[in-house]
């Protein structure tokens, strides 16, 4: 029964599918051409990315000493000021070290007093020895004592001189020992102060990694006890931007972002930094873009994932065309728009055809008089004539391009004043951000190519910078072929 039902149902299903797919009403006739009108409006070009919300400045507070946590004075989300006490290590060991250092200092100072007294004694002995020597010397002159007795008193005098020098050196040594003991006492007091962990910044405690009674071991590096976020009224987002998009991202560019916690709210910020260091992972290269934003109500919390749109271009009230018209390609070659020939470039070489006309329009726009324009075009023609051998030799295209750019800049610099040359450079930079294209309009059922230069794009429209299109004309976006009977 099931097999009979299958054989019966299958032809019906195939027939129904064929009826559903068959284009009724298109049994013949002309192609159907769809299009969108060229209009004026705003275009905002964005680069999308994701990143994590972070505090503008986050400080990890650690301990330089090893010991046991005796007290904690803050917890998660506690606001702190510079110098506020966060925690205290057990200070007993460090208090004993201070006491020991104080005792050592007292001994050293007492030793200085002893050595000073030694100087006084050595000085007294020196004076007594000198007097004895003088007396023996007078007796020798009168013949009352022998020369050997005088020599003995002279030796005693010289020994007393040496004892005085030794006593003075011992005083210097004792004073140096005092300085050493004072430094040791200062170090012991610093360690005692470090048993009190204090906040280095104003902010909020966002992480606490210790509890009372826990032992902190500071050996090769300081263990992190607290993490403090500075002023959460300002936050930053570190976004990863693909290498294909990073070229259009500039510092101070506008940015907007959303977080899952507030899906209906849009937050705004600005690009504060484009980091040069690449991030490579699985043959994918990205760059970190830092976006700063205000967070006055502290709704944005560190760690939230943000979906970011960075504005890389904005145009207001410009001529624009639907993106479908830019993507459209005719099903058959159209006369005047051969495949592979870039739009906006005519024949005749540099200085002639479409390229020459565009250059002349640029020079007129920046106020160059006719005589100067003709002189520039003549010099360019001569320069390019001299480069024909370079083109024919198959030289490196990059080298040729650099040579052309340098030569062109030199000719323009020679024939333009400073203001005109600066204006020309500005227009050249703007032109680098455009691209040639060929769009098509419906001319009574046939496609008519129009050469244009396109600027920035968003998800719907592309800017028309210049070209052969006017507002109100309809650009072809689709052709639906007619079906024969």
The global form is: elongated
Mean pLDDT: 83
Tell me the helix content: 25-40%
Low-confidence stretches: 1-28, 335-352
**Treating each run of at least 4 consecutive H or I residues as one helix, how many helices?**
9
Which percent band covers the strand fraction?
Answer: 25-35%
N-C termini distance: 41 Å
Total DSSP E strands? 17
Largest sheet: 6 strands, antiparallel, barrel
Sequence of secondary-structure elements: HEEEEEHHEEEEEEEEHHHHHHEEEE
Q: Write down the Rg.
A: 45 Å
- What is the CATH topology descriptor of the domain at 91-194? Helix Hairpins
Classify the secondary structure makeup into a structural class: alpha+beta
Task: Name the strands of the widest sheet in spatial order.
Answer: 2-9-12-11-10-13
Overall CATH architecture of the domain at 91-194: Orthogonal Bundle
> What's the CATH class of the domain at 91-194, please?
Mainly Alpha
């Amino acid at each position: 029964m099931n097999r009979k039902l299958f054989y019966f149902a299958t032809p019906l299903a195939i027939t129904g599918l064929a009826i559903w797919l068959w284009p009724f009403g298109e049994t013949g006739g002309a192609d159907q051409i769809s299009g969108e009108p060229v209009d004026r409006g705003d275009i905002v070009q964005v680069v999308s990315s994701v990143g994590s919300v972070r505090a503008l400045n986050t400080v990890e507070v650690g301990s330089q000493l090893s010991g046991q946590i005796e007290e904690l004075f803050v917890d998660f989300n506690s606001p702190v000021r510079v110098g506020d006490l966060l925690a205290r290590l057990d200070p007993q060991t460090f208090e004993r070290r201070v006491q020991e250092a104080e005792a050592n200092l007292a001994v050293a100072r007492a030793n200085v007093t002893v050595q000073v007294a030694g100087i006084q004694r050595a000085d007294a002995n020196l004076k007594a020895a000198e007097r004895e020597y003088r007396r023996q010397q007078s007796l020798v002159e009168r013949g009352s004592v022998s020369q050997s007795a005088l020599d003995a008193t002279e030796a005693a005098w010289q020994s007393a001189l040496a004892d005085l020098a030794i006593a003075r050196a011992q005083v210097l040594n004792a004073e140096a020992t005092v300085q050493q003991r004072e430094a040791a006492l200062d170090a012991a007091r610093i360690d005692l102060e470090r048993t009190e962990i204090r906040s280095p910044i104003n902010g909020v405690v966002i992480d606490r990694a210790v509890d009372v009674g826990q032992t902190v071991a500071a050996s090769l590096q300081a263990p992190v006890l607290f993490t403090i976020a500075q002023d959460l009224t300002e936050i930053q987002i570190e976004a990863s931007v693909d290498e294909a998009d990073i070229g259009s991202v500039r510092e101070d560019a506008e940015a907007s972002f959303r977080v899952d916690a507030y899906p209906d709210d849009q937050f705004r910020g600005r690009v504060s930094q484009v980091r040069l260091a690449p991030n490579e992972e699985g043959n994918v290269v990205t760059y970190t873009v830092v976006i700063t934003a205000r967070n006055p109500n502290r709704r944005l919390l560190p760690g939230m994932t943000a979906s970011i749109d960075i504005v890389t271009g904005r145009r207001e009230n410009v001529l624009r065309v639907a993106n479908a018209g830019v993507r459209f390609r005719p099903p058959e070659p159209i006369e005047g728009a051969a495949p592979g020939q870039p739009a906006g470039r005519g024949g005749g070489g540099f200085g002639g055809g479409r390229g020459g006309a565009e250059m002349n329009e640029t020079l007129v726009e920046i106020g160059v008089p006719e005589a100067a324009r003709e002189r520039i075009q003549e010099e360019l023609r001569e320069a390019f004539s001299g480069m024909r051998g370079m083109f024919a030799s198959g030289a490196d295209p990059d080298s040729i391009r650099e040579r052309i750019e340098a030569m062109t800049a030199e000719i323009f610099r020679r024939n333009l004043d400073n203001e005109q040359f600066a204006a020309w450079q500005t227009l050249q930079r703007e032109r680098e951000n455009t691209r040639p294209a060929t769009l098509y309009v419906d001319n009574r059922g046939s496609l008519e190519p129009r050469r244009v230069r396109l600027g920035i794009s968003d998800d719907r429209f592309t800017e028309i910078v210049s070209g052969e299109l006017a507002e109100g004309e309809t650009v072809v976006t689709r052709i639906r072929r007619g079906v024969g009977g």
